[in-house]
Amino acid sequence: MDDRRRRHPSRLVALAALCAAGAVGGLIPGPAQALPGTDARTYRTAGTPIRGGLTSDDAPSLAVGGPRVDSIGAGETRFYAVDLDDRSTAYVSAVAAPPPGAHLDAYRDEIRLTLTRLDGGRCDTAIAGADADDVAHPFGTAVVRQPGSGTAARCGAAGRHLVKVERPDSTAGRDERWTLELRSLREPGIKGEPSGQPAKDSEGADTPLPRSGSPRQRAGGTGFNDATPLTSGAWQDTVAPGQTRFFKVPVDWGQQLLTSVEVPAPEGSSGKPTGSAGFLRDALGAAVHNPARALLATNHFVPYKGNPSTSRIGTAPLAYVNRTERSRAAVRAASVAGWYYVAVTVSPQMERYFEDGVPVTVRVHVKGDAEPGPRYDGSATAGGFGVGADQGRIGQPGPGAAEEDDRLRAVAYGGFGLGTALLAGLGAWKLTARRRAGVPVAGAGPHGGIDNSAR
Hints:
Helices cover 14% and strands 29% of the residues. The protein is of the alpha+beta class. The protein has three domains: 1-30 and 402-455; 43-187, Jelly Rolls (Sandwich); 196-396, Jelly Rolls, CATH 2.60.120.
């Protein structure tokens, strides 16, 4: 049969399917889903491809804004270039995402970021690593260039700088490449000088969080790019063993983010420890990142042995002056307002206790009232920082929620109707085309089917 008679119908069928899917899926919000055919535990990226240079001489430019996606193998180094001005604070983050089931060594598998001037002068270094053996989970952090007086002045000049990302060689998973997600952000400079002293460590992170009733269901995202927004309260998700879920919380100046991650005893169990036979050393991981994706804190995974387990983690109160702290990286990173990310990872071995997914409760408490922030010389929101007026209502129905649900439902029905009409019309068009071409057409059967045997 002449292939030309099949080419256009196939294109139109594909167009109809895309129209139907776009009319429905593109307009109805919901938790991100893995692409068909991919492992549900896969870290989801949303950036454009970039290929890092093998030397500093062929480093591609890392533009400000949306994420860029590369990959890195064991023992490899990648170079990228960033163009900086002399007023804004510059952040460059890198997130490594080993593939599901990858072999990891908690002591050796890591990524090291270094920001330098073109002449080799070092501006900043940051390290993020695997927190558990053979628990494939994304991890990352950011380097920063803070202009001003003191030691930061050595990198305060405008011009091209280099970002180097290194992955050490390792005997575990040496043949497995990791996805590498990079992002460059700029925070405007401020008018005047910051006042006050850096905050103390997260002194409230180990205290019990306020109880907030029964947890509400909220599925986490698959990465930073589709992290699910939360506010203070209790939220529950069912996490597959080996999966990492991402949430984000708006935190303003003067406020402190405190979270706890809880896993109950298996249903039907006594809730008592199972002894050494059921002990899992690295069962539940949690990490907190600031809006620039710099790592603030991690629990390095907590054990599980069949009884309820809880991990608490939090930030210092946010203050611009925190960035002047020299020795405490967690305090230094709590120096910008905006979305703070909570990543929760469940070990693959938790399937021993929960075959149908692990019920994880994430309790969120934003402590303190919002305070006035610094006077920026520009828009911090445009750079990806700051708390907008609408973020305080995240997770709440709101006054217009019912009308919005009705509107989206109408869009959905309209999308399904459009798709059905398009497919029905294509079916009639194809039937007519086959008759004109002299191709035998089978009679309609009990399901009204069309004979495709001539393909």
